[in-house]
Amino acid sequence: MKGIIFALLGGSFITLQGVVNARISQDIGVFQAITITQLTGFILAFSIFAVVRDGHYSDLQKVKWPYLFGGAFGLLIIFNEVTAIQTIGVTLTISVLLIAQIVMAFIVDATGLFGLRKLKLHGWQFVGIGMMILGVIIIQL
Amino acid sequence: MVLGIILAAVAGAFVSIQTVFNNKVNEKTGSWLTTSLVLSMGFIFALVASILMGEFNASQLLQMESWYWLGGVTGVGVVFCLVQAIRRLGPTYSIAIVLTAQLGTALIWDSLGLLGLEKIPFSFNKLVGIIIIIGGVIVFKYKSGYVDEKST
What we know:
heterodimer; B: mainly alpha; 2 domains; 0% strand; transmembrane (chain A); transmembrane helix (chain A)
């Protein structure tokens, strides 16, 4: 039961993150909004890290350096998300974003990009993608 | 309309790429150090972008509504809740619930126009569309396996 509550809250937070950034952007501009939300998120995450100490800085030397910059994509992601929310609304933005996310994860898995294990393709996955796209078309009818 | 859809699609594709990058870091260290690193990178790049775009204005930041400073809490909430949910339910079951909550929250938000965003009235086809998307995700996740595993 606790797991289900965390999953529900987690999903709501994902949408809320886009909405909050869109709201703050209206007032101070999208780049400043992203700067502020990333900074306060960092301060909170780092404070939790300082208490739980679930890793050591030297761990980061074991990571191939380009992967350390994953967070930089946040700028592009939030900028696009905020602009989309302002033009097509939250429901359509989140629906399209989600499907592109699943399809991209599928491409990465199916091709074994970034040295990940290759995923087996099967017909059901194409049925699933077809249904998701159908859903988006129905939403904007 | 088309531009909005393209922007959202590009964002979604990069969410998956970012997830791969973050997981590579998370394989070597804990989730809070990973989250701190990810958000610090996001902050640095956003700060540079806001200066380059001529948007940065320190006095405006000091005068803005104080709740904006809480904006980053949502990002940390995502990480914390997802880690807890996946630990208790496993990834597949968690993702189905997360997506449902994500789309449900979006629909509620548009319908009520909360936080001063433009209100987009609720319509029955939106609910049907969301249910079909969730169904599609469940079908998609059904029976997935790796190439190097023996088929059963």
